[in-house]
Design brief:
It comes from Actinoplanes sandaracinus. The strands form three sheets. Strands 1, 2, 4, 6, 8, 9, 12 and 13 form an eight-stranded mixed beta sheet that branches. The protein has a three-stranded antiparallel beta sheet with strand order 3-11-7, with no helix packed on it. It has two helices and 14 strands; from the N terminus they run H-E-E-E-E-E-E-E-E-E-E-E-E-E-H-E. Helix 1 packs antiparallel against helix 2. It has a domain of 136 residues: Immunoglobulin-like (Sandwich), CATH 2.60.40. It is of the alpha+beta class.
Amino acid sequence: MRHRCARLLTGVLATAGVLLATGLGPARAGAVHRDGPISAAFPDIEVPTGGTAVDPLGPNLWSTAGPVKLTEAKVSYHLSGAAGVRLTPGEDGGGECVAPSPNRVVCSDPRELSFEGETIEQYLPVVVTAAKSAKPGDTGTVTITFSAKGLTPITGVSKVDVIGDGRENLPITGPTAASLGGIGLLLLGAGVGSVLATRRRARFHS
């Protein structure tokens, strides 16, 4: 009975931690692809009129078959819908990107991509911006394709929602945010720390 209660408490703590740690950010869950040696998630995103999305947009990648090394990795983006929204290459992605149009970006990575268990978040990302003429409530989609040598291309769709100018949608900051974030992280650590015994790593090799 004692072990059962401990497992229940661990699950509650982990769930509460995830909700608190992720509930403050603008990114939301999107499509997830689980098939083959690499899995990918394609998060949704919000962009304010006349501004830039808080986070860059990019796929989250992880290995489902143990350590994996990939070369000639590429990520392509194609935006449709949501008039006034555009895509531009991210500055910190570490890849080489070209933008044939405001609706398309193609990025390639000259490095060897090595998975050792850790999820790579926002891989070769793009920046999403919206003109002042963009209408709050409009929704667009970004078709994202990840490919690499010897790997079947993985395609998913992220949703882009246009919101107000950002003042009513600003993330919580200050002591309240720090307290909530700290509580969430403590709960997450308590729930997950008891079942995770290995450190996950992902590496790039030039």
